[in-house]
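Hi there,

I know you've been waiting on this one. I reran it after we fixed the sequence typo, so this is the corrected version. Both the input and the resulting structure follow.
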Amino acid sequence: MADIDVLIAGAGPAGLVLACDLARRGVSIRIVEASPMPPDHRSGSRGKGIQPRTLEIYDDLGIVDAVHEAGGPYSPALAWDGPKPAGLAKFHRIERRAPTPDVPYPSMWMLPQPRALEMLRERLEGFGAAVEFGTRLLHFEQAADGVAATLQRAGAPAETVRARYIAGCDGARGVVRAATGVEFASETIDPHPMITADVVIDGDLDREHWHMWDNAPGGALWLGPLVKSNAFQLYAKFENEEPDLSFDALRKLIVERTQRPDFVLREVLFASHFGSRSGMARHFRAGRAFLAGDAAHVHPPAGGQGMNTAVQDAYNLGWKLGQVLRHGAPDALLDSYEAERLPVAANLLEFVVQMHKDWLGKAKDKEEPRKGEHMQLSLNYRGGPLSVNERPAVGEGGTCAGDRAPDARLADASGAPVRLFDILRGPHFTLLAFGGSILPALDPRYRDAVRAIRVARMGEAMGEGALTDPGGEAHRIYGDGLILVRPDGYVGYTGAAAAGQGLAAYLSRFFG
């Protein structure tokens, strides 16, 4: 008999997002974190870049407004040639874009990871759960119906917890992956060390730009203003020496590489060195254990992908565990976590390594990212085990099963504006009927778990509860027919106007 449904090891981005998603579904959890205290500003501003797709998930979880309030946009990049500015630099990772009806959050947003984690912990508490800090997962054993895990809190006797599943969100050196024996292949992208530091600098250094000395003697140096702070984040790579994190060494480093003696270091809030490694686990599932975030893959720091990929892992896994544990779906559904996320992680890893080599100047040809890839909006599960198309293709750029479900501007019967994301928000499936399609009758088993909405063109009869598409944007994006959006915001099924049987067969995979 299990004490809980899911034990989550690790309270970083993956662990907290998974905990929030499961808790709001009524899944019983415990989330344990070995660190005795939550990270704060002394942990530095690493992991500060929140990609558009992650902002959409934060919208669904109800924290995006707080994230926007506490953070801010990235500044444009300014290249320097020694002591003088050389002009704006093309730096696609922090390029600002205007919102569009289908992409409400088009640009990367800056918020240091400790603050984002604090918001996720507060949200988790609102769902009735909390992180158990200072609690270590020592080991666990698997059985046919669950896992038995041994936990150790400082100053207390060890306890055994039985859970139906365990999620390893405990990092690259975590206990969960080690206990499963899953192979983890990694490589060093560049042997030269790098440092990051949060520093306060006096001098004529504006806070409207991300300052880049890519050709500085001894290695590149960047200084980026941190939002709602008087500090800059410093990045520096070292080509022929080992980094020194002392105050005097950092002061000297800034002056030598910028050739600006008037840039005076006043305070070091945080400093750390890091290497550039990449790697990935061979499997993301081992029996009743799952790997997510850094436990499943590690990324070089370029491009702001590691933390964001961890969030996507958790969001893919959460709803599937919810369907198995609360709606009677077969355990085999959980195999789709690895089937969907492992290829995405592998492609992202290749992409990030390329970006990192661009930064290091080692790439043969510098490449722009594929459209939307670095924002994680174009990543998809087309061809995956849960992606079913039963209607004709909608043309280039149209939405297919496996794609992210774009936002759209709709209106209710009174003409009041409604975002499609408002309809999708929450732990349910959403069935949309476009182009005169009739919503099929749903099996009573699904009615509480599937929100069904007809989207009518202007001038079409609406019917009770229908929404209109005033500008025709939603129909251009989605085409005609039936669209079933999964709880994680991806299209699972597309069908023709009278696709009741195919839809019913598809939904039966997620319910007992």
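Quick highlight: The radius of gyration is 24 Å.

Best,
R. S.
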